[in-house]
């Protein structure tokens, strides 16, 4: 499994923490930037990393901005991306079980390091429930086609 990482200046510090955590877990990643705390625009990084996922360079993503809101909105504009903004472990678990989210979004200015790592861990480990949830996800893909 390869993780696409993306952030803006508001998410940079937490992204560095998550990188170290993924290394600890032995999980590969591609860091699509940004690479410092200099002010940037989160849609640029959300788009690069989201395209990395839909093009198959990475399997899933963890995207971080100050609140996680902007970067999740931007990521969800890319066809095939289901980005879930999670502020706690329960929502991270459900974002996999029910929504099969392929991008986890975090708020670098909101979450403490340990909570963020716990969210990442459960999100990486929880499988998709399938069944009726598969039908609902397929309907999301149909909306993408209607919007083409
Ligand atoms: C940047 O200041 C901030 O707006 C951004 O990181 C994010 O929180 C947007 O949703």
Automatic annotation (TrEMBL):
InterPro entries: RpiB, RpiB_LacA_LacB, RpiB_LacA_LacB_sf, SPI_LacAB/RpiB. D-ribulose 5-phosphate binds at residues 8-9, 66-70, 99, 109, 132, 136. Transmembrane segments: none annotated. Pfam families: LacAB_rpiB. The keyword Isomerase applies. One of its GO terms (biological process) is carbohydrate metabolic process. SUPFAM superfamilies: Ribose/Galactose isomerase RpiB/AlsB. Its EC number is 5.3.1.26, 5.3.1.6. The active site is at 65 (proton acceptor), 98 (proton donor). It comes from the Bacteria. Keywords: Isomerase. The keyword Isomerase applies. GO terms for molecular function: galactose-6-phosphate isomerase activity; ribose-5-phosphate isomerase activity. NCBIfam families: PRK05571.1, rpiB, rpiB_lacA_lacB. PANTHER family: RIBOSE 5-PHOSPHATE ISOMERASE, RIBOSE 5-PHOSPHATE ISOMERASE-RELATED. Belongs to the LacAB/RpiB family. This is Sugar-phosphate isomerase, RpiB/LacA/LacB family. It comes from Desulfurobacterium thermolithotrophum (strain DSM 11699 / BSA).
